[in-house]
């Protein structure tokens, strides 16, 4: 099928993007890598009279460090996140989650901003943002604002972004000393969206003991949004075994039955993936 007719706009400055979004409101949609939007338009699952292509906008792509954060511009491609040594060193979880996104052809075009703004509940990057307490940078003609990742995702393909707003970048905290990270997911085939996945970040306490200072677990593919398993995180910090933490995470999610997997299956797999991911992350954190 082909998309319904639309007018394409190719602004080169952020101010032009904001003006177009303000002018056309609900009739306009931002086009980034097109890896989710274009199939939806072609299948006529959605239609917009105006597409505002942000690929040429100066300054919207790129990676920079500032005051303990790594800032990733919205149109930075997945492929860059996967390969840039700075990302591997400063935000390992982001670098490690990215190869799980689709196939390399998709990662060549798809963008971080697109993945986050699209808010697919089975996508990796929203879960990474949630686990790391990332900050979303948002702009419109009304001004700029920042939104914490925990407040950003509202439901399947739904975020707090208004039709006139554009995501300009995401800030991730630079890894702390003695921290470890892991990504685990189950998909039917490599490149498919995950049926269930987990990303985790832990920081080991100073000294030789087993104490952890921080534990973050975000699950995806288990509900309308990525989910922080806060009860499981607390249990881990209080010294529970990995098996107990896995069970706690499985019990606090609310997955649904769908064409791809039953809720029961998702819950069971989530518990196992949490154990596996935490085992690796904790080992990495303790190695220092
Ligand atoms: C076969 C296939 C498999 C895939 N598998 C996975 C997978 O396993 N995991 C995964 O995470 N993704 C997967 N994807 C999706 C892929 O990651 C997309 O790149 C991503 O979801 C959207 O990024 P994009 O830049 O292509 O955005 P687009 O498709 O251009 O846009 C997606 C949505 O985000 C909005 N948007 C984009 N950028 C902005 C912005 N800066 N500000 C405001 N709104 C914006 C658009 O308006 C649109 O609503 C897959 C896609 C395909 C086709």
Present the secondary structure layout:
Layout (H helix, E strand, L loop, with lengths): L6 E3 L4 H11 L3 E4 L5 H6 L7 E4 L9 E4 L2 E5 L4 H6 L1 H6 L1 H6 L6 H6 L2 H7 L5 H8 L3 E6 L2 E6 H4 E3 L2 E2 L6 E8 L5 E8 L9 E9 L7 E9 L6 E2 L1 H8 L4 H11 L10 H25 L1
Parallel strand pairs: 1-3, 2-3
Antiparallel strand pairs: 4-5, 5-10, 6-7, 6-10, 8-9, 11-12, 12-13, 13-14
Helix pairs in contact: 10-11, 11-12
The structure holds flavin-adenine dinucleotide.
List the keywords:
alpha+beta, Uridine Diphospho-n-acetylenolpyruvylglucosamine Reductase, domain 2, Enolase-like, domain 1, 12 helices, globular, binds flavin-adenine dinucleotide
What number of domains?
3
How are the strands of the biggest sheet laid out side by side?
4-5-10-6-7
Beta-strand segment tally: 14
Architecture of the largest domain, CATH level 2? 2-Layer Sandwich
Highest-level CATH class of the largest domain: Alpha Beta
Query: What about the largest sheet?
Result: 5 strands, antiparallel
C-alpha-based Rg, rounded: 19 Å
Name the helix and strand elements from N-terminus to C-terminus, one letter apiece: EHEHEEEHHHHHHEEHEEEEEEEHHH
Query: Beta-strand percentage?
Result: 25-35%
Secondary-structure-based class equals alpha+beta
Instruction: Average the pLDDT over all residues and give the rounded result.
Output: 96
CATH structural fold name of the largest domain: Uridine Diphospho-n-acetylenolpyruvylglucosamine Reductase, domain 3
Ions, cofactors and other ligands present here are:
flavin-adenine dinucleotide
Taken from the alpha-carbon principal axes, the silhouette is globular
**Distinct helical segment count:** 12
């Amino acid at each position: 099928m082909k998309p319904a007719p639309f007018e394409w706009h190719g602004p080169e400055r952020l101010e032009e993007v904001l003006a177009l979004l303000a002018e056309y409101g609900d009739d306009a949609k931002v086009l980034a890598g097109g890896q989710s939007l274009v199939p939806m338009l072609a299948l006529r699952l959605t239609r917009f009279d105006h597409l505002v292509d942000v690929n040429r906008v100066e300054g919207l792509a790129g990676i920079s460090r500032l005051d303990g954060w790594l800032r990733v511009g919205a149109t930075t491609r997945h492929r860059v996140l996967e390969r840039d040594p700075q990302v591997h060193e400063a935000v390992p979880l982001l670098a490690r989650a990215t190869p799980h996104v689709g196939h390399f052809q998709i990662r060549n075009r798809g963008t971080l901003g697109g993945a986050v703004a699209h808010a697919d509940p089975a996508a990796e990057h929203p879960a990474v943002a949630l686990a790391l307490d990332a900050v979303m940078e948002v702009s419109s003609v009304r001004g700029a604002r920042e939104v914490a990742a925990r407040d950003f995702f509202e439901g399947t393909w739904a975020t707090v972004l208004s039709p006139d707003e554009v995501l300009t970048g995401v800030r991730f905290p630079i890894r702390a000393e003695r921290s470890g990270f892991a990504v685990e997911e189950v998909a039917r085939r490599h490149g498919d969206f995950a049926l269930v996945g987990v990303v985790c970040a832990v920081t080991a306490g100073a000294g030789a003991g087993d104490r952890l200072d921080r534990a973050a677990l975000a699950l995806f593919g288990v509900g309308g949004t990525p989910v922080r398993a806060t009860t499981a995180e607390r249990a881990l910090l209080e010294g529970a075994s990995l098996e107990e933490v896995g069970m706690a995470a499985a019990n606090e999610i609310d997955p649904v039955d769908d064409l791809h997997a039953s809720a029961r299956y998702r819950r069971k797999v989530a518990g196992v993936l949490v154990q596996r991911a935490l085992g690796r992350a904790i080992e990495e954190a303790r190695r220092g």
